[in-house]
Amino acid sequence: MCSHGHSHNCASEHIPEAAGDDVYRYDMVSYIDLERVTTLNESVDGAGKKVFKVMEHRDDKDEYVESDCDHELLFNIPFTGHVRLSGLSIIGDEDGSHPAKIRLFKDREAMAFDDCSIEADQEIDLKQDPRGLVDYPLKASKFANIHHLTILVSANFGEDETKVYYIGLRGEFQHEFRQRVAIATYESRAQLKDHKNEIPDAVARNVF
């Protein structure tokens, strides 16, 4: 087993709420910038981003991520704009490889394992949930307006490696990044200005 060279803060919350099929909608995958998702300690490069599936494919066991040299996985998840996250769901295997504890960090891009020694924005003890029926609510005060989420799987139920089939996020899209909005506004104004400039020219030609 390898060491990532960091310490753990074991304070955590146990706040799962049992949910029936499709009581919650985990539709935020459409707002994840999947091309930029990175997963540290994955045994197969690029496998981590494949667990962010549409909800209807959450039972698909063909695509998954498995940790490499120990039980930890670290997901860096950028969004395409600002979002409000209100809950999540995690599906693992029906054995000790299922994640048992996660630590969440907001708006800290490109985190490495050594960065995770800081206080997390939320820590959650998980249940073994191979069907994705447990919903884990997120703190409204912490995740109301974020652009990046980091998920550290810090423990599983006893195996050397951790396996994850699905991570679903629920919430709402808030707004696009201000820079993109500013560019769009600038371009719109530029086009309007060009159009306005054409009017006097046309009038001038008609008058003279």
Automatic annotation (TrEMBL):
Checking InterPro entries in the record gives:
Galactose-bd-like_sf, PITH1-like, PITH_dom, PITH_dom_sf
Task: State the family it belongs to.
Answer: Belongs to the PITHD1 family.
Q: Name one GO cellular component term.
A: nucleus
SUPFAM superfamilies per UniProt: Galactose-binding domain-like
Name of this protein: PITH domain-containing protein
Pfam families found in the cross-reference section: PITH (PF06201)
Boundaries of every PITH domain copy: 17-189
Q: Give the species this sequence originates from.
A: Caenorhabditis brenneri (Nematode worm)
